[in-house]
Fold these 2 entries.
Entry 1:
Amino acid sequence: MSAYVYDLSQGNKDLKDLLGGKGANLAEMHNMGIPVPPTFTITTEACREYLTTGSEPASLAAEIDEHVTSLEQAAGKKLGDAQDPLLLSVRSGAKFSMPGMMETVLNIGLNDASVEGLAAQSDNPRFAYDSYRRLLQMFGKTVLDLDGDLFEDVLDEAKLSRGVASDTDLDVNDFKAIVARFKGIIAEQTGRDFPQDPREQLLAAVRAVFNSWNSERAILYRKRENIPAELGTAVNVCTMVFGNLGSKSGTGVAFTRDPASGAQGVYGDYLENAQGEDVVAGIRNTIPLLDLETIDKAAYDELMSIMSTLETHYKDLCDIEFTVQEGKLWMLQTRVGKRTAAAAFVIACQLIDEGIIDEAEALRRVDGDMLAQLMFPRFDPTAPKTKIAKGMNASPGAATGRMVFDSHEAVDLSVNGHKVILVRRETNPDDLGGMIAAQGILTSRGGKTSHAAVVARGMGKTCVCGAEELDIDVKNRTMKLPDGRMMRAGDIVSIDGTTGEVFEGEVPVVAPPVVQYFEGTLSEEEVAADDLVRSVARIMAAADKFRRLGVRANADNAEDSARARRFGASGVGLCRTEHMFLGTRRSLVERLILADTPDGRTAALEALLPLQRGDFIEIFEAMDGLPVTVRLLDPPLHEFLPDITEITARVAVAEKVGGGASEEDKTLLAAVERLHEQNPMLGLRGVRLGLSIKGLFTMQARAICEAAAERIKAGGDPRPEIMVPLVGDYHELQIMKDAIRRVEREVSEETGVDLTQIPVGTMIELPRAALTAGEIAESAEFFSFGTNDLTQTTWGFSRDDVEAEFFSNYLERGIFKVSPFESLDVDGVGRLVKIAAEEGRKARPELHLGVCGEHGGDPASVHFFDKVGLDYVSCSPFRVPVARLEAGRAAVEDASGSDTR
Amino acid sequence: MSAYVYDLSQGNKDLKDLLGGKGANLAEMHNMGIPVPPTFTITTEACREYLTTGSEPASLAAEIDEHVTSLEQAAGKKLGDAQDPLLLSVRSGAKFSMPGMMETVLNIGLNDASVEGLAAQSDNPRFAYDSYRRLLQMFGKTVLDLDGDLFEDVLDEAKLSRGVASDTDLDVNDFKAIVARFKGIIAEQTGRDFPQDPREQLLAAVRAVFNSWNSERAILYRKRENIPAELGTAVNVCTMVFGNLGSKSGTGVAFTRDPASGAQGVYGDYLENAQGEDVVAGIRNTIPLLDLETIDKAAYDELMSIMSTLETHYKDLCDIEFTVQEGKLWMLQTRVGKRTAAAAFVIACQLIDEGIIDEAEALRRVDGDMLAQLMFPRFDPTAPKTKIAKGMNASPGAATGRMVFDSHEAVDLSVNGHKVILVRRETNPDDLGGMIAAQGILTSRGGKTSHAAVVARGMGKTCVCGAEELDIDVKNRTMKLPDGRMMRAGDIVSIDGTTGEVFEGEVPVVAPPVVQYFEGTLSEEEVAADDLVRSVARIMAAADKFRRLGVRANADNAEDSARARRFGASGVGLCRTEHMFLGTRRSLVERLILADTPDGRTAALEALLPLQRGDFIEIFEAMDGLPVTVRLLDPPLHEFLPDITEITARVAVAEKVGGGASEEDKTLLAAVERLHEQNPMLGLRGVRLGLSIKGLFTMQARAICEAAAERIKAGGDPRPEIMVPLVGDYHELQIMKDAIRRVEREVSEETGVDLTQIPVGTMIELPRAALTAGEIAESAEFFSFGTNDLTQTTWGFSRDDVEAEFFSNYLERGIFKVSPFESLDVDGVGRLVKIAAEEGRKARPELHLGVCGEHGGDPASVHFFDKVGLDYVSCSPFRVPVARLEAGRAAVEDASGSDTR
């Protein structure tokens, strides 16, 4: 048996690695008894050897020869025969579909002698010479690497001199002349005549296909699609069939269902008297596939039968390419068809109904990214638009509103019923109110994990960030467009967070029914009437049935908690308390920071206590009966004060011209200077702050305990868990836990409600915490992996700084396959998660493990978290359905042992 | 056998854990036949049980009774006997000496009846009643927790009314009266009479000693000395012997050699007719021990013989306490004696000479901290001084000079022959020139690992930092003292980096001969004539003989390299290139940063190339024949530009009043804003910068290669190694290595010198690098652990920010035993080092492993690096001898399996 060449009977659909997708599926069809033109496939292994060594394997030519002989026997024709030549096509076909990225050469076998044989046999000299000129043209361009325009110019000239518009209006003499000129071009450009030896043509074409693996466009495509560069392509050498032999011939493409909507029934296009490349080139308009029935019922019926057979066999939507040669149907390709996200859900459910797949398999047919797509609001694609810039698609969705450059203004306008887009160079925690009030956020700086992007995604709010073409001047409330025009506060702008596009004026929006379903605003009848929603509901039910992993939400207020619950969260995995310190409470926090006596500090804390307690009461009520993990204050204190550069400049200017800076500003400046940190990410935060500011964390613990007591007295079932952030050493947690336990006992005594069982745990968000998890677990009753911070410290870069600076460079160079802030870096950060999970559980077998970083809602990361045995993931409310789905998919992936991603 | 009480014959010197140091050594002496008063020891286990449960073990009282009976039998006296009472002392004694931190009660067994017996037996009623009042006083204060002043007041009154100054002038009647009054105080204050039952006295005293383990001063002392809080103390119950029975009696302390200089010959003090506490209280002046020979030759001779025996037995300097009771010598304590650093070296060598210990043991008797002490310049301790403040002892040494507040001024003055102290609120890389020029650095902000401290230690430059009492106003060039006085630029100040003290005016300095020895400025005769220098030389030779670990130096210029070589470095482990970008070259770096075209950037790089090449030529020459590891540029570019706050304020002010900011300032501001990072430590640095700024790292590689080629052509033997900083993923290194290899080939071709074998490696300074070291080692030919950065990212704190903020708090609370920037955190950072070393070596067995963080010169850390099998440590030139010594000590530690630290 040959090593580098396979015939159809040796292949099957599972040999994609070796035979490529096209070759494997042709073999599969052949073996199913479906008519496929006799074909052999040169393996990807041969390609890899060729690409590595620069020449094909020594035995390849002989192997090809041997298989050509088989094709000749099957066809009863001989390659290059002057009477009745066998013609071959040479087609690329890699493991993963790379449509149009690599090369194809048709009509191999034609030469000055055999073209006459083809003319005689087909009784169609025009067809024969048209086929010959096609070979010369493709060979010249693809194999000999000549400029394609040289050939196109000749064709254009011929049409011009004949006064016709289309190739189809040229006759045999025209083509004979064109053939002569094409041969001249080749001889002139390469210094060699076009090879008349068909075997030389064939081998050269095979090499050209190998080489096309590394064409610029192929490399670019692979990078974008994350296809490994080392796979290589297989090459399929097929007996030519012709759809261009007259009205009984034709060619088409089809899907076994509608790939856009998932609706049942075949869906395709047909072109009479044409070859595949004519369909692609769009020379004539295609007709609906259904019309083939009237043209050639027998061929149509056979096609329908084959499509039905394929779908049952592949258990999925298939797409196909076929040719009818004088009434005889040939299948040229099939594969599991690409489809829209909506179609994926609908089809998966149809296939369950049809008994073709089970629920577990249906889960493998969809994914979280698809579901996320279905949840974003979107602009009406048919509406006219004026695009003014393109930034990063930071948080999907479509939003329109008046431009505002200031968060307070955003809140004011929004309260008065206006829709606004918050426009900033970049955002900071102070903009939160404005971000909540706005329909969307547009920034000119920062990447996909900038503050604006992260917070927006967390809120399910549309965001375009880093739109650098826009010159945003916050002070003058203007935005200069690339063409020099100026937009001003109050002007209407529309932003598409799915594409990153920014439009002038209003673009109408389409609201997604899937979100309405999750929100519970659709009636049962409405769900039943909508194929997509019904399918999503069914898939979600399956995911919930299979999944082992719990899904909680990151929510800081009652509204988000309630939404998370509607979206299927089984608790709050991360309730950040810093947002409770902003807005109108900022003045209290300033008092706390500026307090220069213990009494002053105590007074400020006491003023904050009832406000925090109120927050918790609302959240516990919204999540009644479900756990709420409250993280004690994490960010450094100076985040609550003005920026040092801003206030320094203000004071300096006031000192020079304003008659001196105000005492208030001077005090503030002194505090800002005192608290200023070179690297706030690595500064006085989290538990360090709790250990430094006496009473801060215990005030928060007291607010939690008192809120819980109040809820219990009101007949509720609050389930708080207290989480200490940024622990790096077990002592830190132990000291804090002791203090929290004291507060629990105090409040228990004061209220008469037993609160001493509130779990106390910690974030694992520093490498050292992961590396000493065994010690930390002695005190911690739960771990929650803060994978955002853990990624920052493990890699040593802060997402505020690096993403815009070098992430795109790193992605382009292949250092990152995907941003480690988007998908968990399994080798580095993941290893720490695994170490901590294992050693934590070893020290405390009942240790509860969760994750509350952004990765909790990322499909690939969810699978990893499932695999390392975490108990739950927590993500933003809007990502909860995605996480539920992926948790279900992870479960069936685990069960089947195959990776569905 | 009893569980909680040991008699002397059951103990020995190795049972310190159980019997404490005093108890173990008393047993040892007893078993050597040395006269020790009959004693039993209550174990630390009993103490721990007492401290945990709040009461002593149930069996303890009975065990004590049993052992008291043995003491009674040995003495032929009975406790509390009215005719001839046995008296006991109750003394604390923990595993580690905690001098004066815990309690002692003497004369247990005296009561109203037995005091008369003692008076009769001793024929000295005054002595008996003095002893009784001492018991009452100690018991009242220590056991009953009464205010000691109550008793002192009575004594003072008695002396006053008798018109005498000293207790010794009071007679028996005075003491009888005092005893009565003391008993009154006890009854009045406690509501109970002083217990007449000697066994009740004894048990209460034992409990008091247990309790004193947790006295405030004991807790504080343990924290400072890193003694674990859970050890507890043993209690020694000794038969009383009396040095206060007249002129044939006395008490003393002694060392077997001079603990200050190490000089041979006994050294001690003696006090006639006195008890131990009188020596401590300093009531009378002691006489030199030698004078005992004339007072009581027999006792003296016996003592000399015992001291000689002890030294031979303990193989070390011993200190002892003894009492002579009416001509009979009793040993009350011995232990291996504390000594100065100088004495430690001298004695260790004497003991080798005397054949008592071998060289390996001598290495265990000294350590790197001691050696470091011997290397610092110091103020003459006898000189008069005016102290004005105390800061942190950041970098040891003693420096005097004129105050300058500006680095340029420092350089100017220094060039003109003036000694200066650079005075700043804090320093930054721009101050480097000034720091080099200055004798020492004084700052009012920042901790022991602030920029000033780290750089100063690296340079062996004296530094006091964080002297917060001083109000430093750089703009007005003044320093306000705590008393309100003002010092100005040009005033003389002296700083002691060993104590952190700051003095007004000049304090004369003593230059350390050990440094002169390392510098090679002492003749052989001078070395031979100086006990200390000779001993240090001998110990260093032993360390070099034993050590496995190489020692290199961190050096950025030829001068440091040459010094490092003199100090015994076998190469440069870290040659930072950023310092080569400062000073007069800053303008070139600014050009590079501000260049807005590729050509402009190339031009700037080309201008830098010959300068860098020149730097390397000098360094390679200084280190000819030895490896020089050059780290490519690490810090973010904005470190070469002005501070954002400063320039923003300057531009803002100029815009308001100065008629507009200059174009230059505006351009600079724009660049500063563009490059500004929230967390520069986690930003665009190291290899990220190299991958972003085209040509930067290859320019540096070219400068290295060209310098090497030039040195080779000049007959030299340069051994450069190129180190890529801040690698987190193997792709980063691979891309850079490919680029460096290209440069090597280019320069090889251009110069005709083969440079293609220059090793290329990486820093391991990010957790991810350690976690993926196996992959990185595929490209890296060496690893150098950057433990400073690795500590920062593993713990998630930046040393710029945290040390002043919460490190002292963390040290106080016991979260840190020692700052992880000072000594490597073995559990967290060390685990990463271990993982990387193991997995790196697995992937590439010949991988060379070193460390170039500050920890490379830290004694404890050196031992760890030796244990995990690194090939070398690299540290600042001044730490090289310390590292050599510790590497030697680590080797003998490994060999013996015992931990010498």
Note: Confidence is low (pLDDT under 50) at residues 896-901 of chain A.
Entry 2:
Amino acid sequence: MSGKTEASSGAAENKDYQRLVELLAEVTALRQSGGLLFWDQQTYMPKAGARARGNHLAVLSKVAHEKFTAPEIGRLLERLRDWEETLPYDSDEASTVRVARREYEKATRLPPDLVVRHSRARTRAHEAWIEARQKNDYKVFRPALGEMVDIMREVADALGYEDHPLDALLDQQEPGMKTADMEGLFGELRQGLVPLVKAIAEKADAVDDSFLHQPFDRETQMEVCREAAAAVGFDLETRGRIDLSVHPFTIGFSRNDVRFTVRIDEGFFNAGFFASLHEAGHGTYMQGLPERFEQSILHEGASSGLHESQSRLWENIVGRSRAFWQFYYPRLQKRFPEQLGKVSREDFYRAVNKVEPSFIRVEADEVTYNLHIMVRFELEKAVFDRELGLDDLPGAWNEKFRNYLGITPPDDLRGCIQDIHWTFGFGGGFAGYTIGNVASVQLYEKALEEHPGLEEEFAQGEFSNLLRWMNENVHAHGAKFGPQELLERVTGRPLDAGPYLAYIKRKFSDIYGL
Amino acid sequence: MSGKTEASSGAAENKDYQRLVELLAEVTALRQSGGLLFWDQQTYMPKAGARARGNHLAVLSKVAHEKFTAPEIGRLLERLRDWEETLPYDSDEASTVRVARREYEKATRLPPDLVVRHSRARTRAHEAWIEARQKNDYKVFRPALGEMVDIMREVADALGYEDHPLDALLDQQEPGMKTADMEGLFGELRQGLVPLVKAIAEKADAVDDSFLHQPFDRETQMEVCREAAAAVGFDLETRGRIDLSVHPFTIGFSRNDVRFTVRIDEGFFNAGFFASLHEAGHGTYMQGLPERFEQSILHEGASSGLHESQSRLWENIVGRSRAFWQFYYPRLQKRFPEQLGKVSREDFYRAVNKVEPSFIRVEADEVTYNLHIMVRFELEKAVFDRELGLDDLPGAWNEKFRNYLGITPPDDLRGCIQDIHWTFGFGGGFAGYTIGNVASVQLYEKALEEHPGLEEEFAQGEFSNLLRWMNENVHAHGAKFGPQELLERVTGRPLDAGPYLAYIKRKFSDIYGL
């Protein structure tokens, strides 16, 4: 009899564990309900419903927090310590208790007063950010950002950390990931990417993507988005849907109800199509979570970064590959004969991979994207280390852009007030994007070892072996493991920039003839 | 200084009242959140999401119940008794305490065990009902219905009543309404309607509605539904929306986010159009609730029946009037020139008012509709009085149909298993439909006294005086008063079949030349 089976049969008899699972299921249900309210707010809610929706979301999150931090959960977790140690680390039961304990400790370490002040600071920061954007002036945002930074220092202190306050914040998104890990990662990326960006900039004209910037009918684009998402394995039939919203996002209320949104730009093909593949990637992660986790605290991805690894995998490694367009380009040409009838497949492939240093992160290409994240990470750390004052933030931002990307943002809108993230918090909120990019290649190459024919399959429109590999190796674990743990288990090593840099260099040296 | 103002300024100082309002706002938010989950389930939810959605709804309703029946609410209500008596009965404060106490007492009188058994019985009844419908056989539903009847007897006993167990059940839908009231009402209706139905049946051929049964394009029908709902004053711009679902319904998550659904029948004009006016009527009630009630327990209609008075008002009294079609028929003809180009306005008016005894309640016309309800009410009462055994229900149903409508249902599907209501409970669940029909005329005639030119206004497409009157006299009170109380306040008398019967006789004697 395996340890797993023993543990499972023990679980049925452990009343404390059963009760814990029952209580956590309520918390999960409240959170997933809040998720639907958010989805509706972004898609179908009549405008005037906003105020009541804000109240509803606040109540759901308050009640979920109350339920999750209830003393009974604390007592159960204490009583389960001994039992947990008899179980295999990766069993459902041990993982449930472990993850619940980690989250419970975080949630109960934050004094309610701080949670309330954080929430108020978010509201103020959001308002100030909106106004700052309207006026294209960082100074309008500066006071609210100062308040946010102070609160995030308090949050970090309350959560606790060993080495650096950012560790505490980073751990909320990427359990187990350290600031030092991120610094090592960015160090390698800086070394590999900055010279590559320079080399490509000298050959900027080698790739022409002007035909992507022409009118593409909205309805047809939407059909193409649906077709491509379904082709790579996002279940749109009975377990998912796609809608429109201003900012694309993916959300799931269970593995059997996963929805994403896209934004269609009638003058630019990439905006809708690659958002669809990106969000479909997140969607496959959620749809791939095990059925038995449905009401469990494990019914989540490993981290923001691991989630992003799946979206970047399908958006970039698959969606911007020659093999993918071998399959899909003839279909796309049939949909847009006027726009693409005379564009060769190779020219199209090159165009969707055009590299161009730019100011706006969400529009960045595969090569420059991580430099955008690096700028934010380094600035956050400098602020936390009190090496950079907030008054000097725009100047520091622009200087880093010059150094890494060779361009200078002409104003704050195209500089340090472009992202919404600093209205939620400050510190660690961007790391997941780079972790995702790096992990996507690390995971893909492992999949490729086991299925060397993947690219030939893509060229035939066959993606199920790759998806199944991700299902079995990544999605199947839900939130059992942190990102480093999961990568080590699956690829034999923690997050490693090597495969990513090699992939980027190989791909873009080819495209740009370096 | 008025009593109202004194009370209001007192409220700000009464800490117990403030706390009660705060706790009730959480309950309201949880219920309204559940409402959105239900709406989504009926409109956009991917099919496979059903199981998780069921869990989410169960948790939300459990948590709302826990919060509402919390001992703290009981203590606050006790402590507020003396204060409440110093306040004007109709003040917001006294009404909030009064309605909260009434609902709290009901909610706490039901033993948790009974609530759970009722909920399970619903699930079983629903499954049995579905199967019974598939097999067109009441006997399949019979055992589950028996269980439901037993449970509803227990519910009635737990809630308590003075005269008849049905009073307790009726009071849940129609606060303050008694079984004896309903019997009196149906007595008058029976006397007035049964002979009228017979007289009309003899002139059945006087009205031809065959042109309503031809193909009407789905999209155009939907546009017409939207246009008509907006014309009568349902705010679709920023505070509402219309979607499609299998069964039309209206739901609000606040007065500023009210949604209804319609079902379009491509072969029959009435199904979509009058559902839209009907649901728009419910919608105007919700949108007409006072802003200051938004998070309050008063943010509801007075009762199911009063709600129905608003839907029937716009569907029938307005929507099936000559004046309405004077305004709208030319517009409709433009939308459907092939179908209606050669049909005169008068013929159209007569067609949408065709009276025809039929088996299915939801398809019944204005004259026969209440007879459908009467059948159900009388059967429920006979079962509660142990005068009718459940084995004999189909026979009794069919006999009543013969007596009142002159037709005999050919099978159970077109007989006693057509409605879903007995899967939720048994007793009092249909009364609101008839209360609504009767109250709609009573209210309308009062409005007409104050605005004698209403019909001329309808003919011009002007509905705002009627809507404003309903806003001020009905909607403005939210859930402060029960249906009888509200009708007395507004019209000077309780529910009264007289105006309704006079309206029906006048209208249909004219149409059928009686």
Note: The CA atoms of residues 203 and 256 of chain A lie 47 Å apart.
